[in-house]
Design brief:
20% strand, Helicase, Ruva Protein, domain 3, two-stranded antiparallel ribbon, 2 domains, Rossmann fold, alpha/beta
């Protein structure tokens, strides 16, 4: 038995004949020391709910519960894992809510009215889509008022670097602008590929996001999204060229914003992007 009184994860996987399915982007972490470390990175779990996507056989789920999570809501699209998750639920009465379904179609707010943290080893194939959905969900009637206390998410390391990058970094792009505009981000630690079953071909990493009380600078979400899509869509082009698709006179707009027309998107700060988004909003 493991420390939580449940069988080791490897035994559960063998007993239920569970195998990772590439269709769902699955890779399992069987070491509870690793999953408990991820849970601790999320912060105090005792006074909030936790939302987890893609629990699989429940390695991270058990780590969250062992670290004191008040209640964990897991969303799992693969029905093969339900018996294993139900065993965990029986060991932690009233603290595990199991939802069968597609996480892209289920909002955290539909699961709990309490403040919550999102902690997940995200399926590689939908990880960035889930992150952007959760950030979009923090807007209520045009006001940034997120209910999540933090997001502690595992991605391929390159994706985690793209989320947490700052201006001038080679990984800096549209995802970094949108994430850091709304959250303080941190690349917490790497997760070696050998802790997974089966081992992925790449290193993974934990990105930790804490929502800002207010966005880093004023801008309309749609306008900033459109601007960053154009600016980074052809990132090697100067802004005076890449913005032509969304702006009738990009040179004049850049001059008004105090931005060099020969600059490229990767050198602009979030504040500069927001200033430019406000100026260009009339053209959208």
């Amino acid at each position: 038995m493991s420390e939580d009184g449940l069988p080791p994860l490897r035994d559960i996987i063998n007993r239920h004949d569970l195998r990772a399915d590439k269709k769902f982007g699955q890779n399992f972490i069987l070491d509870l020391n690793v999953t408990r470390r991820i849970a601790r990175q999320a912060g105090d779990l005792t006074a909030c709910d936790v939302v987890e996507v893609g629990p699989g056989p429940g390695g991270l789920t058990r780590g969250l519960l062992m670290e004191g999570a008040r209640k964990v809501h897991v969303i799992e699209a693969d029905s093969r894992f339900m018996p294993a998750l139900e065993e965990i639920g029986a060991a932690y009465p009233g603290r595990l809510n199991i939802i069968a379904g597609d996480a892209l179609a289920i909002t955290p707010e539909s699961l709990t009215q309490a403040p919550y943290r999102i902690v997940s080893n995200l399926p590689y194939n939908i990880g960035t889509a889930l992150l952007t959905n959760w950030l979009d969900g923090g807007w209520q009637n045009g006001i940034w008022s997120p209910r999540f206390l933090s997001m502690t998410l595992m991605f391929q390391k390159e994706v985690a670097q793209r989320i947490t990058a700052q201006a001038g970094d080679k990984h800096y792009g549209r995802l970094a602008v949108l994430a850091n505009w709304l959250c303080d981000t941190e690349l917490a630690f790497d997760v070696d590929r050998q802790v997974f079953v089966p081992p992925p071909k790449v290193t993974s990493a934990i990105a930790h996001l804490t929502p800002r009380p207010q966005p880093a600078a004023e801008a309309a979400p749609d306008a900033l999204a459109k601007l960053t899509a154009a600016a980074f869509g052809q990132r090697r082009k100067m802004l005076r060229a890449s913005l032509k698709q969304i702006c009738s006179d990009p040179i004049a707009a850049l001059a008004e914003a105090g931005i060099d027309e020969t600059a490229r998107a990767e050198v602009l700060s979030i504040e500069e992007f927001c200033k430019l988004a406000r100026l260009l909003a009339a053209d959208y």
